[in-house]
C-alpha cells in the first residue's frame, strides 16, 4: 500500500496531478484545499504528498488521494467514518482547510459545514453526531503548518491552550499545567498536534 510519495510534477488538472516517481507516473486525486496549495508549483517541481490509498471490491481500481500533512490524511480517515461519506465523496467535499472544518465541528457550526461541496443539512447533522469531540486536535493545524513553514513553540502552545480552554472546557491554569507536564514528558514535541496528543496521553494515563 502506498502511504507517501515524492516526485516531479508532470501534469496538473483541477482535481488531480500526475507525479513522476522512479519512472512511474502516479495519478493522485486532490481535495480542493490541497490543490489550491499546489497552484504555485510548476511542471518539473518537486512535490511530496501523504497518500490515502483506496481500493475495495466495489472500487477495484486503486485510487490515490493526496495530502500535504499526515494530520490532514488522519482527518480524512476520520471524516469518511461518517455514514454515507465515502472516500470519493469526501475528496469532493473537502473544499475548506481541515482546521476550519474541525473548528466548525467542535463549535457545531452547521452553516460552515453546509458550505462543503455535496453536504446538505442532513449530512452536516451526521458529521456533527459522529465527529463532535473527535476533531479538536485537527483545529490546531495552522495555515503555516499547511504551507510546511516552521511554527514556534510559543505559538503552538498558545493554540493548544486555546483549544483546551475554549473548546474542551478546561480552566486556563489547568490547561497551562497540562501543557507544561506534556512538554516535560516529551522534549521532542515539534508541532501543535504532537503537543495536543501528549497532553491527552498524559491525562489518559
Topology of this protein?
Layout: E1 4-12, E2 16-21, E3 24-29, H1 32-37, E4 46-54, E5 63-67, H2 70-79, H3 87-93, H4 98-106, H5 110-113, H6 121-131, H7 143-146, H8 153-167, H9 172-185, H10 192-204
Parallel strand pairs: 3-5
Antiparallel strand pairs: 1-2, 1-4, 2-3, 4-5
Description:
With 205 residues, the protein is α+β, with helices and mostly antiparallel strands. It has 3 domains: 64 residues, OB fold (Dihydrolipoamide Acetyltransferase, E2P); 67 residues, Orthogonal Bundle (DNA polymerase, domain 1), CATH 1.10.150.20; 55 residues. The protein is built from 10 helices and 5 strands, in the order E-E-E-H-E-E-H-H-H-H-H-H-H-H-H. It has a 5-stranded mixed β-barrel with strand order 1-2-3-5-4. Helix 8 packs across helix 9 and helix 9 packs across helix 10. It starts with a strand and ends with a helix.
